[in-house]
Give the backbone structure.
Amino acid sequence: MPPREPLLPFTRRDLRSVGVSQRTVDRYLAAGLLCEPVTGVYCDARTVDDDAVRIQILALAMPEGAAATRGTAAWIHGFDPRAPHERGGPLQLECVVDPSSGLLLPRRRGLITHHDRLPAGDVIAVGGIPVTSVDRTALDVARFLAPHMGLAVVDAMAHAGLIDPASLRQRYEEWPERQRWMGRGKRTLELCEPKSESFGESWTRLRVIDAGFPRPEPQIWVPEERPGAFRLDMGWREVRRAIEFDGEEDHSKDDDRDRDDDRRERLRRDYGWTVWPVRKGDVLGWDMNLERAVGELLGLEPKIRRRMW
């Protein structure tokens, strides 16, 4: 049986002091009672989303003199950078040091070290742990994460009111020339949409835009913004066409789907809107079915023949 009080985060070398064996840890991991949020660090599954626990996890994993960066920094700031298929495993620990520091960090499993310039203000302390600031983290994930995940994270940051995409784009102009993936970073911030309310909406919008279709308007109220009105994830008001991302949490049960169908039928019957629902498998699959379906919805042809991500 698991302990009644949640275990504090610990590493493999701490097993004796924690009072559990490796066999017990493996059994608890398999049962979902423990998790390994960062490579080599374990914590009670009941506390993994607690901000204070995340700080404790990093304190056990971070090499001295480095700052958490990129995906790890996004995670600390409350935005999981992992694609759905990656969330069953631990997060890779990414840290950064300024090349001028001369620091040599250890090599170990699960640790990725980057050397990059760190202007004043780009590193802050979160619970005593050095972490790149929200702005710097957004600039980094926009460049270095896969396009759909970079957009999803910066959308979520903007939706939370933590970043201003326009001012961040200007910061790119101030950086030295010939930085890697700058084109991707600039485009990601250009496409950033603070009104996006889920990773799924961000992924869907990116596939639509990548295929060459007009950028959809987010969060459309029908017939107008007021209590009791309908709100669509994204669409094209002039032709009354919309796409909605049906996430697993709120749209998987039969009752959920019946309610969705009734709502979309009312939108069609009473307001002339055609709404096409998509799910995670549609958006993250490798085929071109989504692009072809949007083309039929809008009466346009996709401008790509192969997926970009």
